[in-house]
Amino acid sequence: xxxxxxxxxxxxxxxxxxxxxxxxxVVAEGTELCVLTALSELEDGIAKLTGKxxxxxxxxxxxRYIAIGTFAGSAAAKETxxxxxxxxVAAEGFRIRTSGRSIVIAGASAQGVLYGAxxxxxxxxxxxxxxxxxxxxxxxxxxxxxxxxxxxxxxxxRGYAGNSIFYANDDIxxxxxxxRDYARMxxxxxxxxxxxxxxxxxxxxxxxxxxxxLPKVARVAETFRKYGIKTFLSINFAAPIEVGGLETADxxxxxxxxxxxxxxxxxxxxxxxxxxxxVKADSENRPGPFTYDRDHADGANMLADxxxxxxxxxxxxxxVYNCKQDWRxxxxxxxxAAYDHFTPLDGRFKDNVILQVKNGPMDFQxxxxxxxxxxxMPNTNMTIEFQITQEYTGQQRHLCYLVPQWKEALExxxxxxxxxxxxxRVADGTLFGRSYGGFAAVSNIGDDxxxxxxxxxxxxxxxxxxxxWNPDLTSEGIAAEWITQxxxxxxxxxxTVSGMLMESWSIYESYTxxxxxxxxxxxxxxxxxxxxxxxxxxxxxxxFADLHGIGVDRTVKSGTGYTAQYQGSNAxxxxxxxRTPDELxxxxxxxxxxxxxxxxxxxxxxxxxxxxxxxxRAAGLTAKWNSLEGLIExxxxxxxxxxxxxxxxxxxxxxxxxxxxxxxxxxxxxxxGRTIY
Length: 677
Ligand code: GCW
Fold this sequence. Notes:
One of its GO terms (cellular component) is extracellular region. The protein is an alpha/beta fold.
């Protein structure tokens, strides 16, 4: 339950003595909310780590201590750091320095101090020497947000770890203990914003912006505020009709604009530091400006005007596409949709509107290219949206450490401003000099005792936060931090779990959809193999497998023309059958099963080989986990063991269903003569 904040007692010995000698007291100067939170986090954390609760005052006997505070509010902070050093600290950054007999944690804001406190606890957990600390940390991204897809009935859309911790019985829960503990987890990795309800805002959630729910929303916001996290709400674009009694939700109608302004004013009466709205509009049957022949800039700008007087922002999702497609129509392409809808609007969004773009053009598949929207809208604020919850990546029954996937996305070169125009620089706002930017991600937690269902899925939540703070951290480094804080400092545990995490994405990919094609899952549930499930549905996510070949032709020459949405050499690479990387081949091209990959194998043989290997490697995970029996807390070990058995079995199922399907379609046998049913 304590996840990476268990603060497991340090082993008896020199390091524990060392840590204890530096932490005899924690002295806080200032009364800002987050400084007080930082103080209590340090007191509790140190007590658990060292076995000794620190005092609150500077020790009179000359012992060493920790001093915390903002430059404005703390003499220690002001004296320890020069003016120049203070100026280098960004709004939410911090400095930590060992100075004489104290360790000083200082920030330009109380939030920075809080992040510094968690950082120091992380250092102690990992056994770092405290004698000569001297570090400066500034978050790379301004917006570091979590999206809950929780519904008021307690269910969670795409939730795989139990029910909501926010809602039950069509109401917001009164006991916010668990929400507070979640806030701690989020703040400890540097996250600073949360939207607390599903982007599909249904009947009751539409009323969150009214007096009926605002008092309770305000309590939730207060809980997050102590941890430096701003609360946002997902809204229903048709709310003026559904709860306001108006006849229209047309964004250019004066009465509609007025209505939203009144709502905003009321929300800010309850929550003075309310973050703003998250909006899913004109997508998957949700209402939006299209109903009134208006575009998305009209819709977003109207809400932005309502929030501006209070400093709020509108986060507008770009997941907009036509979900009703005819298979005979080979020109309509869901992958094109976001770009086609939004690029013509570049420059028209108000400065407090931020577009939230999913990492890939489709929908969080195991493997997708990067959305070409990154780099294509230089005059618009943008955040990147990831999915921590494992909708298409094994639903927290299978292990899939997603940090390597996100790293790959962030390092992708868009060429928008020549070499070095990586997605991470579009997201953080620096490439185009935008005022807002950052990360958003769909959460993977629920009310399961271990938060995430699969005990190792916690690493994804942890890793997401750390990456949002600094996208240059490595996947291995993040994994190691998480493992030592969660399981302690046993070498064998570290090595084994780290190895398992690092190979897990590749394992999952190798028994599910091959070569970037995606979507071979059971429709709606998105778990388990159903090769033709979406092939015979109107959602438009086809792979076009027949007896000759497979893949979606997205070239300009003969396909949907999607490749032209990329810039520089990306467009040429994806247009070319020879140059497209193997792992994305079927995303961009339709090829015969006998097509030879860069690896030298035919497509069909690749499909067979990776399915067999994937199932075997999944079984290998079980064996590795089992080798840790006795080294991991028994109940967690058992939870993991059950999950790995399921994964092993389901990987075999994937293998067999896909192999049989492709054997029957193609008639081409496995070169190694293995069993295909
Ligand atoms: O991935 C799809 C999911 C929907 C989700 C939608 C979205 C919240 O299957 O459940 O709805 O994306 O991102 O809006």
